[in-house]
Structures are given as C-alpha cells and as structure tokens.
Amino acid sequence: MRVMVTGSSGLIGSAAVRHWDAAGDQVIGIDNDMRATFFGPDGSTRWNQSQLESETKNFRTVSIDIRDRDAILDLFKNEPPDLVVHCAAQPSHDKAAAIPFLDFEVNAVGTLNLLEATRQFAPDAVFCHMSTNKVYGDAPNELPLKELDTRWEYANPEDFDGIDESCRIDQTMHSLFGASKTAADVLAQEYGKYFGLKTGVFRGGCLTGASHSGVELHGFLSYLVHVAVVGKPYTIFGYKGKQVRDQIECSDVVKAFEAFAKNPRPGEVYNIGGGRENAASVLECIALIEEIGGYKLDFSLAEDNRKGDHICYISDLSKLRAHYPDWDIRVSLKEILQQMIASAEQKSS
Question: What angle do CA 215, 182, 330 make, to 5 degrees?
C-alpha cells in the first residue's frame, strides 16, 4: 500500500509515518517545514524529519508546498496513493490574524488541491482529514458552566461527556484559523458526500505528544512542559487558568485513522480528543508537571483571554467509539506528560 502523509514532519504526520512504515507500507511525506515560517526557528520540524528518515525503511519526504497545485497534481498522477493522511496546516488561531492570506491558502486551498488530486488520480483512496474543534468557534462556551477550585466544569449532567458533532459551526466566532479550517472541513465532507470519495473528517481537541515542536502560539502542553523544564516564565491568558482541554497522544489519533481506513464512511465527521478521562485545566496540568517531574512552573495570569478561546472543551467520543468499537484512548494524560518531560529533559541536556 502507498500512503501519502502531508505535514509528515509534524506531530500527527510523523506518528502516521512511523505507523505505516512499521507496517511495511510505502510512505511518501509532503512537508516543506512551513512551521518554521509560521513560528520561527523554534517551531521548525526539520529535526523530526531527520529522525524519521534515519528510523524508517520505506519512507521519503518530498518538499512540496500544498498550495502548489501543479506539483501536488503531478505527484498524485505519478504515484497515486491508496491512503491520504492530511495533517499539513497553519495551526495557530492567534497567528492566523497576522497572516490571513497565507493561513487561508494553506488550510483551505491546500486542502482543495489535495482533495481534487485524489479525485482525479486516486479516486479509490481513503482520505483522512485532520480538522479541529475550532470549527465550532466559541459555540461550546454557551453551555452552562460551573467554577470549581481548579477548573471550569459543565453544569448540566447531560453535557458531562462533552461536545459532540451536532454542535453548530456557524453564527459563532472562530478566529480566522477556525474559519479557514471550517472551509477545509466542509470541503472534505463534500468530496465524500458529493463525489463519493472515501473522506473522513477528524475534529481534533488538544493533539499532543513528545515529538511536538510546541511554541507559545501553538502546542499548549508541549510548550508548557518545555518552559517548566528549562525554567522560563509562562503566561496563562484568561479564565483564571481554569480552562479545560482534553489531551490525546498522537498515536491514538493515528489508530483512529487506521480504523477508518479499514472501514471508511464517506464524508463522515468525528470529534477526536482525549475525552473526559484525559481532560484537565491549565492549572491542573501545571500541578501534574510538578508532581511527575518535580518542576515548579513560574507562571502569571493575564486577565484577557484569547479571542474565541474555549473555556471548557471536552471531546465527546461516543460517535467514534460506536462506529469503530476496536478504537479507544490508550495513552493516559499522566503517561503523555511522563513521555514529554523525558523528551524535554533530553533536548535541554
């Protein structure tokens, strides 16, 4: 099988590369290190690309910008894939406001290029699209909440499992990043529903792992661990540090892609995150880092929250679990943090 992975040096992309390379499949990565353009040298994923190329047997990287339509079409024509795992993106809702054209061209137009290349040259391929919970904008903030000592929590028992796929995606503030990713999300759905392509859309919560090149504007948990280990100060923006996120390790995301690829449901949408069991507030994550690694974080609270930021977001995984009962969360939040602290210590030594 030939697997095409976009954003192959990034967090989810590199996990996908390792997974299908280990299975003996031919893996082609599309990555031109745009993350360094978005976030500077600290955001570069070249280190991960080098590591991947030294570890794998059947993998190679092609440095193509997904905005380059002709290059994408040529690649798919010459080497049509059986599976596309689309993870390349401009991933920061803060950064998007400073680079609106680039953000939309990468997230929306780049996705269109890949979908159309698949339709023209690999119509039987499965296409897994990595979307985001930011397609819901700040609509999740409309759920009644209660304030606890260390977190915000859903006030109503019926909301306990979190946000499901019925949450609306319009008439809400997304950020420009959320808007461009919503365009890509709907395009991927449409290529499934209109053209019959085997597309699956995965709306991610907080995707994380030891191979994340976290920076202040993207990669919350990775960056939090980094600043704790190296002793940098950290600023929490708004909500008293009690905002809740559900963390999912990258290998668990890839397992969901694998399950979908074996039994695709064209145009289907799934929320994917750590769920209730891996949900924690920023303050709780800081406490866990100290408990696990012994690092006491120097942090301050800023009153202003990021525009459109979620106060409490937990992914309801019921639909994904129902459609693919063999899939589930395997890596706990504590295990994620243990792996990330060990990686950060190694990099800083």
Answer: 60
CA 2 to chain centre: 23
Report the alpha-carbon angle 38-39-43, nearest 5.
Answer: 115
In angstroms, the CA 197 to CA 195 distance is 6
Tens digit of pLDDT for each residue in 170-186?
999 999 999 999 999 99
* pLDDT value at 249 more than 80: yes
At 281, the pLDDT band (50, 70, 90 cuts) reads: very high
CATH superfamily of 2-348: NAD(P)-binding Rossmann-like Domain (3.40.50.720)
Burial 160-172 (b: 16+ CB within 10 A, else e): eebbebebebeeb
Question: How do strand 26-30 and strand 2-6 relate by DSSP bridges?
Answer: parallel
Provide the CA 284 distance to its chain's centre, in angstroms: 21
Contact 223, 162 (CB under 8 A): no
Whether residue 220 has pLDDT greater than 90: no
Find the radius of gyration of the CA atoms of the chain.
19
For 193-217, write each residue's pLDDT tens digit. 999 999 999 999 899 998 776 666 5
Distance between CA 329 and CA 289 in Å, rounded?
Answer: 21
Q: Is the pLDDT of residue 235 over 70?
A: yes
Question: What is the pTM (predicted TM-score) of this model?
Answer: 0.95
> Parallel, antiparallel, or unpaired for β 126-132 and 206-208?
unpaired
DSSP letter for each residue of 154-209: ESSGGGTT-B-TTS--SSS---HHHHHHHHHHHHHHHHHHTT--EEEEEEESEEE-
| 2 φψ region: left (φ > 0), alpha (ψ -120 to 50), beta (else) | beta
Q: Which residues pair with 153 in a beta bridge?
A: 146
Which of 199, 202, 143 lies closest to 168, judged by CA? 143
DSSP state of 290: H
